[in-house]
Amino acid sequence: MAEKLGEITLRFRDAAQIAHVTDPIAEDLSAVARAGDALFLSCDETAGIDRLVEGPAGTWAMHEHIGLGDIVDLPDGPEGEADIEGLAVSEDADGPWLWIAGSHALKRRKAKRVEHDAEKAAKRLRKIEREANRYLLGRVPLAPAADGRLMPVARHQDRTAAALPFSGKKSALMEALEDDPLLAPFLDIPSKENGFDAEGLAAVGPRVWLGLRGPVIAGHAVVIEMAVEAERPGELRPRKLDGDRRYRLHLIPSGGLGIRDMTVLGEDLVLLTGPVLGGDGPAHVLRWQGALTAEGGVVAEGALQPLGEVPYRGPVDHPEGLLPWPEAGEDAWLLVNDAPAPGRLCADGLSVTADILRLGHG
Fold first, then answer.
1. Which of 51, 165, 223, 267 is most buried by a 10 A CB count?
2. Average pLDDT, whole number, for the chain?
3. Average pLDDT, stretch 64-72?
4. Is the pLDDT of residue 362 over 50?
5. Cα(8)–Cα(349) distance, rounded to whole angstroms?
6. Cα separation of 131 and 170, whole Å?
7. Are 332 and 355 in contact (CB under 8 A)?
8. Which H helix or E strand runs over 89?
9. Which residues of 300-328 are buried (b: 16+ CB within 10 A; e: fewer)?
10. How much is the pLDDT for 169?
11. pLDDT reported for residue 116
């Protein structure tokens, strides 16, 4: 088990003060990224990005909520849930970017047995919902705000927020995968049932890797690699990588676990893995060596270096976000949990603690 070195406190504004946010942000964190002294997080129940900056005594606060509807066109509008599961920061010659990925997942309605009789509960389970904002995959410029820290914006100088085309039914990525012999059978299956569910995101320049919680195929987790270019203002287009394909698949021998987050580390990718379904299970961290130069196909087991196991406590503390935390040492990492245990939350529900862990040597 990974060694706990300490913790930080993440403090957010009251959801009642923020447009299109109804639930406490601290209870539903699903992704994390960092650019210098700005920490970016997302709550999977909203369509927004939350920025915190470092304060005294290990507290990150001064919360700013950025509604994505103010930056990109959202098919379901600014109030529609985007289920943002991936955040990553990259930089090119023009400046830094924040990459953002929705889950692209279908959602099955819950039975709510307490409120309905058995037959009504079964009818609810038969309903599968498609939420258009979940198909977001794009990047937005990061620019200095009034406090000097970076902030996601719609436009900065010659850089413009842009995304792969997506609409009320699907996206350019999902259309490309409809003919994929491995992934096509899983596109109409809901998340947490081994259906298509994007949760990990990493980026270097114009290249982006999307890690899937599901499907896991014959014990292998899936990573989709793309290289994008600006097609027109506000729109990205994947370039051809393998023949006529505009993506490349990497199959990770993960022992049946799906990918919950990814982070670039040199020429490698660090993968946070966890259960595909909604129940309890292990969560491991793997370093995929040479990932940035890997060609598609099954990744050799020898290319995966185990860095440690992180706590996963059933109905609480689901590991969702992982990034290096150099302030605590070379092998230190910040781990952010969804569904935090009650002991992590402060009395007013606005603050939550995140662990700093020591993982295996890089």
1. 223
2. 93
3. 95
4. no
5. 16
6. 9
7. no
8. strand 84-92
9. eeebbeebbebbbeeeebbbbbbbbbeeb
10. 73
11. 57
